[in-house]
Specification:
InterPro entries: NAD(P)-bd_dom_sf, Sc_DH/Rdtase_CS, SDR_fam, SDR_family_member_7. This protein has nine helices and seven strands. With 298 residues, it is an alpha/beta fold. It has a seven-stranded parallel sheet, sandwiched between helices. Helix 2 links the parallel strand 1 and strand 2. The two termini are 31 Å apart.
Amino acid sequence: AVTYMFILNELRGKVVWVTGASSGIGEELAYQLSKIGALLAISARREDELERVKKKCLQISNLSDKDILVLRLDLTDRSSHEAATNSVLKHFGKIDVLVNNGGRSQRSLFVDTNLDVFSAIMELNYLGTISLTKHVLNHMIQRRRGKIVTVSSVMGIMGAPLASGYCASKHALQGFFNSLRTELTDYPEISIINICPGPVQSKIIQNVFTEKLDKSIENSGDQSHKMPTERCVRLTLVSTANDLKEAWISDHPYLAVCYLWQYAPTWAWWLMNRMGKRRIQNFKSGVDADVSYSRKKK
């Protein structure tokens, strides 16, 4: 209760721009932020889905229609990002928090995957994110305050099979934002916050990149063994309110592997080779890649 009150006081009335807000973590962020009383700009490519999210936000909160701005955004269309930023500023007059949540995962082996898939992953997850950040950061520097929250991944900490391109994009984000933070020491009120979720019950698996750009995954498998999206988002908001530089939001064994990767990498490499073999077997047999690590009973 004390934690919730702190989040409430820290984020209520703040203007929060969430990308990737049409599903998964971004959608749940919109719902929890609206309940808190934050003013929302929600972005994604699918405007009809954003309108659905806005409608639910209005139903579950005390916000009015003008408190939620629906703004269609394609992260790969970098030439549109300045105008999009200006649209949010025109509507609300400021941006207190940018949540870089838009992105796609991957399920394919490197040897089977076309190189243009890797290019597309980096365009979306990495370049699209830092492009939008650049425009929003200019505004935050003028105000000398703000929070830039980036939904990275435990894959930004470790490496895993079937996700070499996704891991690369998340490692790139980790390196970029950890470097950017060191360039902003003259602005102590601007926070750079990296969120690293493990597997979450979102729709990210349904939208993954595969070995070809025009191919979607055939079977996303059961997702019930993963962390509920609501819990992941609540912990993300706790991390944001407290200006944590980095938060690993995950259940075991992924969280344990993060610690191994950080403090005992030789063990982590050995363990990941063993876990990785099972991950590939799961994928090839048509179930969720991570299903066998769950200790939860059906």
